[in-house]
Specification:
Layout (H helix, E strand, L loop, with lengths): L9 E4 L13 E5 L4 E4 L17 E4 L1 H6 L9 E4 L5 E6 L1
Parallel strand pairs: 3-4
Antiparallel strand pairs: 1-5, 2-6, 4-5
Length: 92
């Protein structure tokens, strides 16, 4: 499953064109990030790491870490752990 790369949560991106292959509907949201942990690799298990317990947001980029591409925020994923951190604004 796509959502298992960085653990459970609400996956959001910086660029809607980068993830358009995942569906035909986009939702512009306001993100309340909170305490963040940056990941350069996918989580090895389907559960949170002990070190992630203090964080409610994971910043990750699967393409940069797995394909050796230069750092580029086009494919950044911001994984919010709670629905309280997301405010939907516009459907497109």
């Amino acid at each position: 499953l796509h959502g298992r790369a960085f653990g459970d949560g609400i996956y959001t991106g910086n660029n809607p064109l980068a993830f358009q292959s995942l569906g035909e509907v986009g939702i512009l949201v306001a993100r309340l990030k909170g305490c963040c942990s940056e990941r350069t690799q996918r989580l090895r298990s389907f559960c949170r790491l002990e070190t992630d317990v203090a964080y409610n947001t994971i910043l990750g980029n699967k393409l940069n870490s797995t394909e050796g591409r230069p750092t580029d925020d086009t494919y950044d994923e911001v994984v919010l752990r709670s629905s309280d951190q997301v405010v939907p604004l516009v459907k497109f």
